[in-house]
Amino acid sequence: MLMVYLRARLPLLLCLLLLAVAAGYPLAVLFAQSVFPDILGGSLDGFGEAYRRILETPELPAMIRTSLAWAGAVTVVSWVFGIPCGYLLARTDLPGKLWARLSLLVPIMTPPYIAALSYILVMQEGGFADGLIGGLPEWLRLWFFSFWGVTLVMALASFGYVALAVEATLGSLPRRLEDAATLFGAGWVQRMRYVLLPLLLPAVFNSGLLVFLEALSNFGVPAVLGTRSNLPLLPAEIFYLITSWPADFALATSLSSLLCLFALVCMYGSRWLARLLGGGAFRPGEGALQPLGRWGKWAGWAFIGGLFLLSSVLPYVAMVLTSLVDSWAEAELTFTLRHYWALFEPGSRGLQALLTSLGLSLAAATICVLVGGYIAYVNVRSAGPLQRVLDGIALLPRVIPKIVMAVALILAWNAPWVPVDLYNTVWMLLLAYVVIYITDALNYANASLQRMGENLEHAASMLGAGRATVFTRIVLPRLRPALLAAWLTTFIVCMRELVASILLLPPGVDTTATFIFNQFEQGEIAIAMAMATVTILLSTVVLVVFQLRRRG
Amino acid sequence: MATFMQCKGLTKEFAGQRVLDGIDLKVNQGECVVLLGPSGCGKSTLLNVITGMLAADSGTLACRGRTLDDPANGIHVAMRERGFSMVFQDFSLWPHMTVSENVAFGLRMQRVNAPRRARRVQEVLDQVQMGAFRNRRPDQLSGGQQQRVAIARALAVQPDLMLLDEPLSALDARLREDLKHELARLLRETGLTAVYVTHDQAEAFTLADQVAVMNRGRIEQCGTPEVIYNEPRTQFVAEFLGASNLMPYRRNGSSIVIDDGVLDLPGNGALAAESGQCLVRREAICISSERCCSGDDLVELPATCEQTNFLGDRHEAFATLPNGRLIRGFADGAVHRGGAVHVRFPASAMRFLSD
Question: Hey, which of A333, A469, A524, B108 would disulfide with A519, CB 3.0 to 4.6 Å?
Fold first, then answer.
């Protein structure tokens, strides 16, 4: 009886076990340690002491408040930038929409820490702004290296999400709803106020929460720019607690747990809001576009173009120029490729970092896609209480901030009872990449599976195919497009992954991101920027090749 | 009766294709005019031109003596200033508003004060029997309930003209039947002038004072349901309404020759054009295995039964005439497939339509 049950539930149990070991166990250790600081030493002493220390150290509650306020500010600024962009794209006759949309994708694809580094190059004393356009006003520099400057850089990296979400929602709202309002006598303002804005709110809030969560748990910008702006932020603080001697794991884990708590509140908050605000599925409607007029078109493009200039052109120009400039402080610029040669010199650290990243990303993307595809398949095609548990655990990588997962993995695989020496090897990093970035594979495969009916699988089963055959011969081929897209996304994200790498890499090994980060901090700015350029070029080439092959 | 709204020579093109091809239509005060036709005939486009959602390319549209559309003179009154209201096929209720907020919207736009608004909302919701649901949201209602709310929303503003765009076609058959009669009652009780678009003949006949049958951007015939059904002027109207038999005829001197000699009708020649189609409705045809004592008026033709379909209250029968033409009618008594039968109908049931 039990054997029959186990046999039927085998795939589900297997997936549960995988996720429980990979994600559930580390997080459990993390929470346990935040409550019992000495649990890894086998003692339950000091219950809740770390949380008490947070409350009793005056800087920490202030820092947490600053983090929340900063993430809130990033969200609001992203709304201000993103909502008009979304409206312009969805509802007006703005010319060149393809280019406008591309201009939104560039900052989304740019790692925020690279944008932050480039901005430092522009704004710092003796930077590009000083060198190329004459002196930068001191008030502007002061403003930039402060709360609002850091906010601006993060918002420029995130407003694209808001814009695309608003555009998608506006595109899916049937024009009928507005026509009906017009028919009953509503003018433009009333239509906006009573119909369009309320219907947009769910998308605005959801994308806002996404941006908020991303800002709150982002490590790169706080670590690069927050530290230079006297703006201590949560992820950077957790990082310094772990990496500076003596490491304070008790405080780090309790702060991580708080970060987790915020993330969970955000997620459930967004679900609750979505229910509260209604919305619901619409049949996509087509409709006339609002004519902008000549000045309106100019203004629209000035807005989108200005944002593109700030979010993409400025940082990229700074990045590429820095990597090419021979000598830094001279009035006359001379160009050289020697930073690139240095990067590619056989046996150099740069080349090794690049190869490490390449190998790790290839492996991680492939594992993510295969394992994620299988988990999604089992999840979508089963039911019952076990399936609900699986569904819940599969959410973890999606919600838990990356830095928290990285800290949890350190604790879990460094614990005294772990028999294998995974920690301090490159394999640890591969595991971390898979656990953290399996989300995309799960999402893509889930969406694709839910659109497919089960009948093709039943047909194969009836003809005598076993479970494995059905998965490999029927499901995988049909999931191929979704999994390819997931593979590509995962690969690109892993190629530039910073936070897990910097926390988990064994000494003496670099990935591209840690190379950039470390070289920059050590003053080898040109080499750092050369590496950033190469990484971004590489992922762009991979992206373009895939797109072309899909078309061709 | 006073003419309430009038279209003259309305045309509309989309990408070079004529969707409205010279529409002339009169709607009298307090009347319900149903635009009936197959999909793609231009009926929804005509409705959208009347609402003002689309601007006509040429022709004029006037309502109560006020010109709403006259492209030749650059006149196009905006949708929101026409004072019409509309019931949409997909309901188009605002999903973020409650039932009563939806219904109150038009009144709010007219700046009706809150107490009067509330009273009026309650009144119309009661009229459509949705009073108990006023605090629900649209997604908590069934399709039929949503459409009742949409009707209430359109009634609330006491519009000059109520437009209904296939309001029942998104509902299932049973509900459609109920709501159809209720709509007819509401239109009668409120005395509203209405233009109703549908492709369903039963709906058209239940609701219409006048039916305008549309085909390929033109109105083929306009008249009361009885006239449209009994005196179709074109082959399209005849075929679109009800099940019919059409046989080609030509005039030969004073007599009419049907289907190359299946039937000769002497002395009827004056009634019809040179050539065309002879129409006999299905319900006029009786297919039976026995001969009948033939009366003067009765036409009887030998045939072979092809098929019978049980419809519930009777049997529909198909029979082939010796020249191969298939005739549909109703069976009288037991009729068997392959058996010899007689096709019988009164000569007065024949209508002659010119080509």
Answer: A524
CA distances from A159 to A77, A149, A270, A443 (A): 8, 15, 18, 22
The verdict on a CB contact (< 8 Å) between B96 and A181 is no
- The tens digit of pLDDT for each residue in B100-124 reads 999 999 998 888 999 999 999 999 9
Mean pLDDT (chain B, rounded):
89
Record: contact A183-B85, CB cut-off 8 A = yes
Contact A279 B96 (CB under 8 A): yes
The span from the CA of A427 to the CA of A418, in Å, is: 15
Q: Do B95 and A199 touch (CB under 8 A)?
A: yes
pLDDT at A547: 79
**Per-residue pLDDT reduced to its tens digit, B205-236:** 999 999 999 999 999 999 999 999 988 988 89
A120: which residues sit within 8 A by CB, 6+ positions away? A127, A224, A225, A228
Percent of chain A with pLDDT over 90: 46
Evaluate if pTM is beyond 0.90.
Answer: no
**What pLDDT sits at residue B195?**
95
Alpha-carbon gap, residue A524 to A26, rounded angstroms: 36
Per-residue CA distances from A283 to A270, B92, B94, B146 (Å): 23, 11, 14, 16
pLDDT at B267: 65
Distance, in Å, from the CA atom of A27 to the CA atom of A397, rounded to the nearest integer, reads 10
Per the structure, the count of domains in chain B is 2
pLDDT in tens, B122-154: 999 999 999 999 899 888 899 889 999 999 999
The confidence score (pLDDT) of residue A50 equals: 86
Mark yes or no for CB contact B139/A280 under 8 Å: yes
* pLDDT value for A352: 93
Which CATH number covers residue B328?
2.40.50.140
Residue A272 CB-density burial (10 A; 0-12 exposed, 13-18 middle, 19+ buried): exposed
Domain enclosing residue A356, as ranges: 1-43+333-552
Verify that B82 and B176 share a domain, yes or no: yes
Q: What is the DSSP annotation of A332-366?
A: S--B--HHHHHHHSTT-HHHHHHHHHHHHHHHHHH
Using a CB-CB cut-off of 8 Å, the residues of chain B touching A185 are 80-81, 83, 106, 109-110, 157
Task: Decide if pLDDT at A264 tops 60.
Answer: yes
Tokens of B311: 């419809």
Domain check: are B181 and B46 in the same one? Answer: yes
Residues A88, A179: one domain? yes
Number of Cβ pairs < 8 A linking chain A and chain B: 68
Q: Could you tell me which residues of chain A have a Cβ less than 8 Å from any Cβ in chain B?
A: 174, 176-177, 179-187, 190, 194-195, 198-199, 201, 277-280, 283
Contact B180, B206 (CB under 8 A): yes
Chain A residue numbers with beta carbons less than 8 Å from the beta carbon of B51 are 183
What CATH number is given to the structural domain containing A460?
Answer: 1.10.3720.10
Helix (H, G, I), strand (E, B) or coil at B163: strand
Return the sign of the alpha-carbon dihedral for residues B85, B90, B91, B96. negative
For A404, which DSSP code? H
- The count of domains in chain A is 2
Residues A378 and A304 in one domain: no
- Nearest residue of chain A to residue B154 (CA atoms): A184
Shared-domain flag, residues B232 and B247: no
Question: What average pLDDT score do residues A236-258 get?
Answer: 90
Nearest Cα residue in chain A from B102: A181
